[in-house]
Here is the input.
Amino acid sequence: MKPKFSSLMFLLVSIFFIANVNAQVTYQEEMTSNGLSGMMAFKSTSTTYLGETAKNQTSEIEFTGGFMKHVAPKSTSASIVRLDKEVFWDLNISQKEYTEMTFADFKKMIKEGMSAEPMPPAQGPEGDETNEDEYEWGKPVIRVIKGKKTQNVNGFKCQDYTIQVTTVGKHKKTGIKDTILVVNDLWNSVVTATAMEKMKKFHQTLAQKLGFDQPTKGMGAIFSAYKDYLEKIAAEASKLEGYPVKSTMRMTMTTHAQKSLEKKDDQEEKSDVDLSNPVGGLLGGFAKKMAKKQMEKKSTSGAKEVFQFTNELKSIKVGDVSADKFEIPAGFKKVTHPVEQMKKK
Here is the structure.
């Protein structure tokens, strides 16, 4: 799976992190992630300008791990959403180019499943897939914990909350149980909630125009495998007081069934030692044993991280925003959207 990371993707991720004045708003955020199953780790800093029917999010994105760290340079882009014109504009700042996608085209893209390839809910060690269909999952157990003390986060007085969703499943082949745990730590501010109410309403209107009855349904196939967990988290987060100045979400899954299968495979390998060549056979078995120990040493935890996101509100300002922020800058050239390019191939 190689997700397409664009400013549009960051828009959809940010919709989920909005938990919930007539004046216009400008705010700055920082998002970091370890990626999905260890892939596509990134850091993004953004400034968002919000008007009555338009939004401009200008982001600086840097990949911080894996292959993408070496092949994708730090870049600056902007995404403009116009509710009045029902259109997305993605701006490539360095090239002075932009692409356009109407809400109608976006809905068609989601329907056709072209936004991304489906992902399994987790992967075992060394990239072995642990497919959701291999398990019989029980009913998720939800727990909300309120912290005992308030604390200062980025200059805002916040109350901390933790939302946990625990789901136990039995592996169909081995009968071994594994657990998926989703933890969302929130630091909510009542002060920022009033100013950010406008953003909540903007995203609700956007979700309705795109045909999504819940914001998480607009996150595309990238998160489709985790939709149920994310929707449960979002439902609980919407009940909490205040706006999340900081939100950290992490999903992990134990790999007991996978380790059991690996152990079985290891035992089968030992039985295949070449007895006709005692020296070579013993050395081969010793090498396999040492390799196995190295893998176990690398993976001391009983759980594997599926994904992790942290989003922080760094600053917020209520006041007028120039109308130019919501228009295509002078001198920018319109180019073919990547989705249209894919269709032509």
